[in-house]
């Protein structure tokens, strides 16, 4: 069972790799559409010639299409960030579609560079975030169709389908590249691996279990 | 015909009055949930006692419900900003639902404190924004179901239904209170009225027409 | 009568094209003087070699010279932004001179990326801005010599000479490239044109009048 | 063995509760020293009367004293944030002392509102952070006396003593209240508890183990 | 000769005390007019009830009036900051008038929270700023009527009249309360006095001279 | 005596030239490690290919080594800014070691782009900063081992050893390149020299003494 999980995790990780989310700068011109052909690298992305900018640079198509949830998570993320829409560069905003099969979920994660607001379009979704001050308190709700919930900047949060059918949500994040850190993958799937003795102590787990997790992630 | 328009404009204006949108600060704590009972006024809003904060402070219900488009605009805006969700305070984000009957529209407007990203859930919507550099160029698209479009910070933009049925969209803005300035109302509906000779010259309109507009708005 | 207006509007638009205004970032070095020869494009502008920077990079001459107000507006704008003074890059500030003949005016406009403060040096100038929250309220003053007025970020505002002679003002904006959106030009002069049925409904104007305006702007 | 861990975790959590860290705003005055007696709550903290401000408001004593590492972590954190030094309010900076006994560690954690730089004063400390783009890559170093390492904003990172004696480090964070989210506590120690079926699937652990962890944390 | 200097320095210092300048936050509403009656203190200033805000809150009169230059500096500063114009609160901008008699000057100073742009209205003014990277390089110009010069954020700069008559300039700063640190007063006029042995060594001056300076400032 | 001073000042100035400090932007990606080989210049620094980034890009070694205080200041500064650690780019933070022999000192200076927090590791150090509002008030403390002090953004401050032995401190600044302006060098050592008549009047010094200082610095 571990192998398929690893593969799918890698797919999602790759997906996120090329599509990560955001919060942002103050634009200094009407727009600064990201130039995919530039070899220069800056905070954010360099811009293309304004004279060549088209409406299509601010456009994305396909957010009505369900993501493929046939994977161990029973979930799919369709991001619309600066990677998909170059016109988002410098503008500090992105959007995404979340799909969940029954019992689908997204692992506990943080967005290091964005607050998130999400609205459920169909199904039932439990969403919760954990604060540290007040300490390790879980603010959570079961969201039904039309419900909205907010996750403050950088906090650990989770989403899991609690309905019997498919669940769909739209999430907006105030960053062009908000980032997503899936906690289990970051902790147990890091390359090179984090010392297993350390993880065993930090998570109060047997070292053997930690090493199994590290093999799986 | 002018009277009903005036009334509806007032309703929408009032609606916006209490619900205006945003872009934002950097949070200095996990959250700073707006305290509606505070008499202190600051940039943004003062916060309530963290010990009394509930998950409901980050929650809103009802975005699945169509807005009432039985008005001269044939359109409705259902905002979810810091006014509706006090937990959005300091977090720089908001969301809204847009409903359009056939031929419904939102007048040309700007958000002085936010970039906007919107996704069409059903129907057909033309969206365009006008840049000033390059000068007075109209970047526009007709969006179908699942299409996404971005409107950069502060630019004049417009939305009009171009389908035969209802159109629904979700818009996200990177501000807790982004503001909405409907250009016709701001120009012709300002109180006290802007000098009509001036408006006639600025808009290349007969003064009489300007004064009629000022009576209507 | 339409033709000269169009021409002059184009001149001013072009002027603004190459001279747009601003609000801004946080500088990360003593200065980052814009390099006009760089082919790289970023948020703001790339910098020239600090070793080649001169005092002249922070200098502009000629703000004592009246602008040419022999145009349908009876007004002229002399901007001093990052386009004129490359040393302003990353520093979030610009300045401009405004000249008005008797009855001269600047159409209703916004600066999408700056607050404005202006001081009248001679003549009489009515200045007003319209807020949306409180809704469509016109905060306006007639300014005489030595009077100062502030226009908050992104709000629609107007300036019109109300004296019998020339009026001169200095305006400062907290952006290196604040932008200027002349509302009539953005709405009726956009290229490609905004749908005239839509504009007719949004402005409560006859479609024929809208199309005449679109021909003029 | 579980019990003492729980207690110590609580102590540390409480400690963090009242002392959490940060990144920040732009000060609008020379200083805005936090007023502990104010009942008003804002983003950051309200300020005391400048006339009553003393040098002591910018002062803290005791960072030479080793923290008590006689706990299951073998580690101690002595924070100097806006909670300890009210003069840090609005200034976007804080500092802390870290103590480790041999084999001491701090669990994987993030600072949601700060970048961290740390310098080792004595001993040997492995520090690593995990990026998501590139995906789940572990950037880590073993730091000896005089070594410095940087952890970018919001990323998961870990610290563990790898020497045979005590290890001491000074960490600076660019926030007055950077926050600290210990991943194991946030995930397994949240109150109310996160659904154990969900955690089991997300972490690829037996539900029974998850429930044991939830009992421990 | 020392006595009058001390008095005038005090007057200017007091003037600055109550009128200090700025750079700033991002406004979260159309305006947040400073409320002088509030006893709450925050970063910037608390706001008054929007319903009571008037156009006068954004207005200042008198910048055409020469300041009184009959003082040892032969110079006068008339600031228009948030202290004079409460509507500037949260908007990150201020303006000032500078008057110089022949040979008048402003001592070397910095604005800790603003970039400055200034335009000479009449007379001749030498302005220079010193960078540290490149190191201790003096970027300076003699400005005549209509000339504009920029001083980057936080750098030491100086202004001295070099004409035979009066000199007048308008300066804009991108802060509501930019602050002004006159270097000689800060160094030699601090209360309590900075150790004179230290100042003697730092400035390569005789301790006796330092103590004379400290008596004068 | 002047010659050696000049030389050492130059050494320190050069040191600062290549090592200047900071406050900062908001990162738009996990990291943006400065690329020393890039010929492009931007606000901050362009980034290297993320695929080539190593842990060493976030690492610095040697802060345990005393700086060489055999100079007229009896002090040494060992900076760790974006110049030494390219991984600090866009992250808004830096650190430094300060060494003082008995009676060693750092001249009055400002950091134009950072707040500073420092902790004394050994010895005795007087630190003070001067505010302008309240006006020219000296907030100062003698710091012993383990004491911490904060210097707000942009304010003039000083550090002088008051112990009989060596003094060591660690300072953190919330900027990748905070800048350091040594007041005596900026005022009396600027190139080209500031007019000596002006400096004499501004500092209430004999012109002859000013010219001697200018020869020394």
Task: Write up this protein.
The structure is a homohexamer of 217-residue chains. Chain A is of the alpha+beta class and 217 residues long. The first copy, chain A, has one domain: Jelly Rolls. Chain A is 18% helix and 29% strand. Chain A has four helices and eleven strands, in the order H-E-E-E-E-E-E-E-E-E-E-E-H-H-H. Chain A has helices at residues 2-17, 183-188, 196-203, 207-216; strands at 59-60, 75-80, 94-100, 105-110, 116-122, 125-132, 135-143, 148-151, 156-161, 167-173, 181-182. The first copy, chain A, has a five-stranded antiparallel sheet, with no helix packed on it. In chain A, strand 6 (125-132) and strand 7 (135-143) form a beta hairpin. In chain A, helix 3 (196-203) crosses helix 4 (207-216). The longest helix of chain A has 16 residues, at 2-17. Chain A is globular, with a radius of gyration of 19 Å. Chains B and C meet through helix 1, strand 4, strand 6, strand 7 and strand 9 of B and helix 1, strand 4, strand 6, strand 7 and strand 9 of C. Strand 1 (59-60) of chain D pairs antiparallel with strand 8 (148-151) of chain F, so a sheet runs across the interface.
